[in-house]
Design a protein that fits this description.
- By secondary structure, this protein is mostly helical.
- The chain has one domain.
- It contains six helices and two strands.
Length: 112
C-alpha cells in the first residue's frame, strides 16, 4: 500500500521534471521543487478534485470525459501560482504538462 503511494508520488515528480524539460512554458527549478509540487498536487487530487469533478459533471459528460483533462491542467496551473520555482506560462503549457504528468502516473499505476 505504502509502496504504491510512494511510487505514484515519485511518478508525479518525475512527470513534472520531464514536462519541464520537453514542454515549452513550464519550468521546475530542481528536484525539491518537483517533490513539493507533487505533494501539493496529491493533496489537491485527494481533497479538492472530487468536488470539482462533481461540480463539472454535466460538461464532463457532454465532452465524453475530455473535460477532466482541462480540470487537471487548471489544477496544475493553479499550483504554479503559489509555488516558488515552479512556473507555467499559460493554459496550453499547463494542458500539455498535465498530459505528461498524467501519463507518467498512469504508467507507474499499471506497473505497480
Amino acid at each position: 500500500m505504502m509502496y504504491r503511494f510512494l511510487a505514484r508520488f515519485l511518478a508525479i515528480a518525475a512527470g513534472l521534471l520531464i514536462a519541464s524539460a520537453y514542454v515549452p512554458g513550464i519550468s521546475v527549478h530542481g528536484l525539491y521543487t518537483a517533490l513539493v509540487v507533487a505533494a501539493i498536487l496529491g493533496f489537491l487530487n485527494v481533497l479538492v478534485r472530487p468536488i470539482l469533478v462533481v461540480l463539472t459533471l454535466p460538461i464532463t459528460i457532454l465532452t465524453f470525459g475530455l473535460f477532466s483533462l482541462v480540470l487537471n491542467a487548471l489544477l496544475l496551473w493553479f499550483v504554479s501560482t503559489f509555488v516558488k520555482g515552479f512556473t507555467i506560462e499559460g493554459f496550453l503549457p499547463a494542458f500539455f504538462g498535465s498530459l505528461v504528468v498524467s501519463s507518467m502516473s498512469w504508467i507507474v499505476h499499471k506497473l505497480t
